[in-house]
Write a structure and sequence with these properties.
Largest sheet: 4 strands, antiparallel
Structural class: alpha+beta
Shape: globular
Number of helices: 10
Low-confidence stretches: 1-8
Length: 283
């Protein structure tokens, strides 16, 4: 959460493999809406997360696994957790899967038939085996890791994907690009006193339409999203400067001290002063 970037996430593969694969461990918090050109698989080991993924709200508990599609705009709320995370570039899948751009993956937690549960357990076992082999790294570990990786990707394509019609893909992409423009604009101008009316006018939308698509796509209003973004910037400055808290608030467009404190406490469970002290004591 220390990054000031809240838009398009650049994913860097591990140095020795063509994907990003790692054990994620954090104290929980909020990751604002973002997207990347990778499918993302999250296998929760401890804790839980709440993902808002465009029109879906998904709760993922320990022992459950989810796959997020490439280019989907998603945000995450989490408790203290550990998870195995795999991110695979579109370029890899495009190389081996004809019409990959038409595929949509559908692997989410929920009620399952015995056959579906068996398939899901196999997926989780492959993921676990990938982690073990990548941690131990015996001679030739890349051969085994990649064989597991491609076995997992085959399972996803074979058992957890549907093929959309081109018209539907085009519509989805158009909606995402529209929302990305709005989110990028709000991030870039977060320090200004923006309103639904002013943002709608900038994009030649009716305010009601803007409010409706924001709520549908990211689950937040313009005002709510602005405060989430501003809190990220405030947190960054708290950790990296000695500036007064009031100065930091004003720098990022938070002129209503009471409301900003409420949003900060909602995110971190403490005041900015307390958070700064706690984080610096860890160093």
């Amino acid at each position: 959460m220390e990054s000031k970037e809240v838009r398009h996430e650049i994913v860097f593969s591990n140095a020795d493999i063509d994907v990003r694969f790692y054990l994620s461990a954090d104290d929980g918090g909020y990751v604002p809406p973002h997207w990347h050109d990778h499918i993302e698989m999250i296998y929760m080991l401890e804790g839980e997360i709440q993902i808002h993924c465009e029109t879906r709200e998904i709760h993922v508990k320990a022992g459950e696994l989810i796959v997020l599609n490439s280019k989907e705009i998603h945000s995450i709320w989490s408790t203290k957790n550990q998870a195995l995370v795999l991110q695979v570039s579109d370029k890899i899948l495009e190389k081996y899967v004809p019409d990959y751009e038409l595929l949509q993956f559908q692997a989410v937690p929920g009620p399952m038939s015995p056959a579906e549960a068996t398939k899901m357990e196999r997926l989780k076992k492959i993921c676990h085996d990938m982690y073990v082999i990548y941690e131990v790294r015996p001679d030739g570990y890349l051969l085994k890791f990649n064989s597991l990786l491609y076995d997992l990707l085959f399972s996803l394509v074979h058992s957890y994907s549907i093929k959309l019609v081109e018209k539907e893909v085009s519509r989805n992409q158009k909606n995402r690009e529209k929302m990305k423009e709005i989110l990028t604009f709000l991030d870039k101008h977060h320090e200004e006193q923006l309103t639904v009316q002013s943002v709608a006018e900038h994009f030649n939308y009716h305010p009601d339409y803007l409010s409706r698509i924001m709520k549908r796509q990211i689950g937040m209003t313009v005002s709510e999203y602005l405060y989430e973004i501003r809190i990220n910037y405030i947190y960054y400055d708290l950790m990296n400067t000695d500036d007064f808290i009031n100065e930091i608030f004003e720098r990022h467009g938070c002129t209503n001290y009471r409301v900003t404190m409420r949003w900060f406490k909602k995110r971190f469970g403490c005041t900015p002063k307390e958070k700064r002290i706690m984080e610096r004591e860890k160093l």
